[in-house]
């Protein structure tokens, strides 16, 4: 059996960051920037007022106080967006609004609160230092400065910055298009009637959600029966819209293991056992003329889920142009004993909570009661996976363990 790490490095070798494309800002949301963006402008682009008040020459107000206000004629009225005001001379001032260009000659802004608010003449009852309430050209961003680095995922803040420097489109690694295909003669679409021996198909829904949570486009192709010819035909159909294909089911040792049977023949997909529990049978390779990557996950719902988190997520991250790092983990105190098969690393679903206690351990992990790889219900409340190393077969309550934090839904 190969180790988890070996399998991760093998699957990562199947993919590269997707070729960058130029996208409008809003379509680029969630994409990963493929080149640094430098600002074509300064921010602010011109000296301007940060308050509503009066643009003045600070020296005129040196003696101003509550008792001896200084009275100045108001020679202009400058709203935001108006750059037509001429220069002001010493002994004069201009009414100015937040964001309006500071007129030439002025070197400070007096907030309206320090004045009587006059429109023809104004009385100012405080002195002001040079530069007061003035936002200087370039003090936020200098022209040609890098505003967003390459490799950054474009969130709302980045979109704001890019728009503020006048950028309307950016080169990003597009979101990978992931086709999801389940297999199994026993599967029935949720909402339809179950016949004897049939079950509702659930893996493709779970994977579609997980793929979206991982920032990719998911195409749920639904499911097909256990017919090797059907799977090859279906792959032919879906490859056009896929940057990568995920399948579930049909990869273990049974005689109806259709995915394994159909894809083994191609010679481009390898089926192996990984020393992990759940998720031992894994297949990975490429299919079709453009050698589209394919990962074939086991059919048991919990196995498929854990396989996604361990193996598929890093692959999708690399395709997005992000470092293919694993999910973050913390150390936690185990709230119940657990067991694990010798020679395989277990990932046990658990509920991780942050709490301070006398021992100082900040996290506790409560393994869920039903750990069978077909026992899906506990997945819904799970937020983490307790890791039991290959050489360990049992851990007592109170043990300090590594716990992988599952991504929060968003
Ligand atoms: P398989 O790997 O195809 O032998 O499937 C293993 C187990 O997972 C069987 O009990 C299947 O019925 C179940 N299973 C496989 N695919 C799905 C699916 N898409 N949704 C729900 N259960 C599935
Ligand atoms: Mg099956």
Explained architecture:
This protein has 410 residues and is of the alpha/beta class. The protein folds into four domains: 4-18 and 175-320, MoaB/Mog-like domain (Molybdenum Cofactor Biosythetic Enzyme, Chain A); 21-43 and 139-173, Molybdopterin biosynthesis moea protein, domain 2; 48-135, Molybdopterin biosynthesis moea protein, domain 3 (Molybdopterin biosynthesis moeA protein, domain 3); 329-405, Beta-clip, CATH 2.40.340. Helices cover 17% and strands 30% of the residues. The strands form eight sheets. The protein has a six-stranded mixed β-sheet with strand order 16-13-17-21-20-18, with helices on both faces. The protein has a five-stranded mixed β-sheet with strand order 8-5-7-6-9, with no helix packed on it. A hairpin with a 4-residue loop joins strand 20 and strand 21. Helix 1 (4-12) crosses helix 7, helix 4 packs parallel to helix 7 (301-320) and helix 5 (228-238) crosses helix 6. The mean pLDDT is 96. The structure holds adenosine monophosphate (AMP) and magnesium ion (MG). The site of adenosine monophosphate (AMP) has 21 residues, from helix 4.
């Amino acid at each position: 059996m190969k180790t988890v790490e070996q399998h991760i490095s093998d699957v990562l070798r199947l993919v590269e960051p997707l070729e960058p494309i130029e996208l409008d800002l809003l379509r680029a949301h969630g994409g990963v920037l493929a080149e640094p963006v430098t600002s074509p402008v300064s921010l602010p682009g011109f000296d301007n007022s940060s308050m509503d008040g009066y643009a003045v020459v600070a020296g005129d107000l040196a003696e101003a106080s509550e008792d001896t206000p200084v009275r100045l004629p108001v020679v202009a009225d400058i709203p935001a967006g108006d750059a037509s005001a001429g220069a002001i001379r010493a002994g004069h001032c201009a009414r100015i609004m937040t964001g309006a260009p500071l007129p030439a000659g002025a070197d400070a802004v007096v907030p309206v609160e320090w004045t009587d608010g006059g429109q023809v003449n104004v009385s100012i009852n405080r002195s002001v230092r040079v530069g007061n309430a003035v936002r200087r050209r370039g003090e936020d961003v200098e022209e040609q400065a890098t505003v967003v680095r390459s490799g950054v995922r474009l969130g709302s803040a980045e979109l704001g910055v890019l728009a503020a420097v006048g950028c309307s489109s950016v080169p990003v690694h597009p979101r990978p298009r992931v086709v999801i295909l389940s297999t199994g003669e026993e599967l029935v679409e949720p909402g339809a009637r179950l016949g004897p021996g049939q079950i509702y198909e659930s893996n493709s829904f779970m994977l579609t959600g997980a793929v979206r949570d991982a920032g990719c486009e998911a195409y749920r192709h639904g499911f097909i029966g256990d017919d090797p010819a059907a799977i090859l035909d279906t792959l032919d159909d879906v490859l056009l819209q896929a940057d990568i294909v995920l399948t579930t089911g049909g990869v273990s040792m049974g005689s109806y293991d259709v995915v394994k049977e159909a894809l083994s023949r191609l010679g481009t997909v390898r089926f192996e056992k990984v020393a992990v529990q759940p998720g031992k049978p894994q297949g990975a390779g490429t299919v079709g003329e453009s050698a589209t990557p394919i990962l074939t996950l086991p059919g048991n719902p919990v196995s498929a889920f854990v396989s996604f988190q361990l193996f598929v997520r890093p692959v999708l991250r690399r395709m997005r142009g992000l470092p293919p790092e694993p999910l973050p983990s913390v150390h936690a105190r185990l709230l119940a004993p657990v067991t694990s098969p010798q020679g395989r690393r277990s990932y046990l679903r658990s509920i991780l909570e942050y709490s301070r206690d006398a021992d100082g351990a900040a996290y506790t992990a409560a393994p869920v009661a039903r750990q069978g790889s077909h026992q899906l219900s506990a997945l819904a409340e799970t937020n983490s996976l307790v890791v039991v190393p290959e050489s360990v077969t049992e851990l007592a309550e109170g043990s300090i363990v590594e716990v992988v934090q599952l991504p929060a839904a968003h």
